[in-house]
Amino acid sequence: MQGRLVDFVNEINQMEFPQKYTLGPKQQVDSDSSSPNNQTHLDVSPWSLELENGVRNEHLVGASRYCSRGAHGLSSKSKRRRIITVVQRQAANVRERKRMFSLNEAFDELRRKVPTFAYEKRLSRIDTLRLAIVYISFMTDLLEQNGQNSPM
DNA sequence: TAGGCCATCTGGTCCT
DNA sequence: AGGACCAGATGGCCTA
Prior knowledge:
Elements: H1 2-14, H2 48-53, E1 65-66, E2 84-85, H3 86-113, H4 125-149
Antiparallel strand pairs: 1-2
This protein binds a DNA duplex (16 and 16 nucleotides) through helix 3.
């Protein structure tokens, strides 16, 4: 069993995924440093203080209505449009950051579960998913084989 | 410099 | 009404 797992890991380390499974030395953008924001956007902790301290962005003003424009803007066929205040928008941003943080925590946990040898660098999220799929398939096959071989 | 990866913002939609 | 979830856009960082 152990040996087969080692073989498996060697195998996946050499296999090529459809779209160039190279995982070059990608520096950890954040994560391992345990801080979700590697400074770029916020210099505060992930999110916690923001709600308590209220609004962060200076350029946003008080409780004015938050009128959207945004990437997809407002195509003429938007149905009901929810009007939210700046404070509400910022609260939603905080929640979204928190949600993404927990998502990344789950990815980190998954990273620790999948076997790797050669990856000195941290797996990207997409590679983690792909590797997990391969790994689960492998283990499933292994179980089935053992079930067939082992005497009842 | 291009491309990959990521964090964040944002608006739409669904659900409670 | 408000939160969760999702996807698109944007910009920064890093490596080849």
